[in-house]
């Protein structure tokens, strides 16, 4: 028997470049007249096309919402995926993209991280439930949080909510360790108690820079890749999927129970896994993403994630005015953070 596993999870792109050295307080949004204040916003009007930079009315908060002046919001892979209309969480047109960000609460001017999934971060003012925000700890860079809280969340919740009875000082294999999400997954794993981190990537030089303990270098012909270093893994965080995942699960002779967690699909969206693999290995297969864990499970983890940014390495981001969204929408070589 063969099991055909298909992934619809978004993959994750790489970071890069520049970030401002200071954070400025922001003025109130502009007004077209005294009765109808307006603000700048990005707006998706056609599936698959870059959002337009436009003006829209300032939204009024609902009874349980708090208004936030947005400082920065990251252009994550999932943001682009939602804008294609093909993501399982895509809504209706038109809509404002952006799944999270950092801003100042208008009520007290405090810096907060907010979650707006699946939409809403790319605008000047956003109204968010108090349950979907958390204050930034002192010393944490808002632009780092805007660029990387989302990818950090992917590995954090995978380890927190999608593993079971992990041993102390566990060994983790990060597949796709040089991607944006993979790089931070290495650090998240250590924060969560990993004693050994094995990194897998095609780029040997970058893989060493990530700071893993052991490496697996993917070959052009996947079938020739030696994955034996993963034999002692307790958990696998997979951002690659496709034929790479099939090769790992089929060829590695695991020496202990292993929990495989699918998170992203950089190498493909489908995998043919022979049934004999499931019968011959002590293997647990799960996925991690919104839907596999609940918002209630995520909520208490957000302050912990924000606090962990104090210990994370500074990652490269490129901060861009929201007015240039059409120009930078398809830039997948750099980690883009927009400022309204």
Throw out a few tags for this protein:
18 strands, 9 helices, Quinone Oxidoreductase, Chain A, domain 1, 6-stranded parallel β-sheet, 340 residues, 7-stranded mixed β-sheet, alpha/beta
Write a short abstract of this structure.
The protein contains nine helices and 18 strands.
Explain what the structure shows.
With 340 residues, the chain is an alpha/beta fold. It has two domains: 31-150 and 314-339, Quinone Oxidoreductase, Chain A, domain 1 (Alpha-Beta Complex); 163-287, Quinone Oxidoreductase, Chain A, domain 1 (Alpha-Beta Complex), CATH 3.90.180. The protein contains nine helices and 18 strands. The strands form four sheets. Strands 5, 6, 7, 8, 9, 17 and 18 form a seven-stranded mixed sheet that branches. A six-stranded parallel sheet has the order 12-11-10-13-14-16, covered by helices on one side. A three-stranded antiparallel sheet has the order 2-3-4, with no helix packed on it. It is elongated. The N and C termini lie far apart (53 Å). The relative contact order is 0.20. The model is unreliable at 8-17 and 19-28 (pLDDT under 50).
């Amino acid at each position: 028997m063969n099991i055909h596993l298909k992934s619809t999870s978004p993959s994750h792109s790489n970071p890069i470049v520049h970030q401002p050295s200071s954070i400025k307080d922001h003025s109130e949004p502009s007004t077209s007249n005294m009765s109808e204040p307006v603000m700048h916003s990005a707006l998706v009007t056609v599936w698959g096309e870059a959002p337009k930079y436009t003006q829209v009315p300032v939204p009024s908060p609902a009874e349980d919402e708090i208004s936030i002046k947005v400082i920065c919001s990251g252009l994550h892979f999932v943001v682009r995926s939602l804008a294609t209309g093909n993501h399982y969480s895509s809504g209706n047109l038109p809509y404002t993209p952006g799944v999270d960000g950092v801003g100042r609460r208008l009520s007290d001017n405090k810096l907060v991280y907010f979650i707006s999934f699946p939409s809403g971060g790319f605008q000047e003012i956003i109204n968010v439930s108090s349950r979907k925000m958390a204050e930034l700890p002192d010393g944490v860079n808002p632009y780092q949080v805007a660029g990387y809280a989302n990818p950090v969340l992917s590995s954090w919740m995978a380890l927190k909510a999608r593993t079971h009875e992990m041993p102390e000082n566990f060994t983790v294999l990060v597949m796709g360790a040089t991607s944006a999400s993979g790089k931070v997954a290495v650090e998240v794993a250590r924060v969560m108690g990993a004693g050994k981190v094995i990194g897998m990537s095609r780029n040997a030089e970058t893989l060493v820079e990530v700071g893993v303990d052991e490496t697996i270098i993917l070959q052009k012909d996947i079938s020739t890749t030696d994955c034996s270093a993963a034999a002692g893994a307790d958990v696998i965080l997979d951002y690659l999927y496709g034929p790479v995942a099939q090769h790992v699960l089929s060829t590695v002779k695991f020496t202990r129970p292993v929990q495989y967690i699918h998170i992203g699909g950089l190498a493909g969206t489908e995998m043919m896994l022979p049934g004999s693999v499931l019968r011959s290995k002590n293997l647990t297969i799960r996925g991690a993403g919104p839907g596999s864990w609940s918002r209630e499970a995520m909520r208490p983890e957000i302050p912990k994630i924000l606090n962990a940014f104090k210990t994370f390495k500074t990652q490269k981001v490129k901060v861009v005015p929201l007015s240039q969204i059409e120009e930078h929408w398809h830039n997948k070589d750099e980690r883009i953070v927009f400022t309204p």
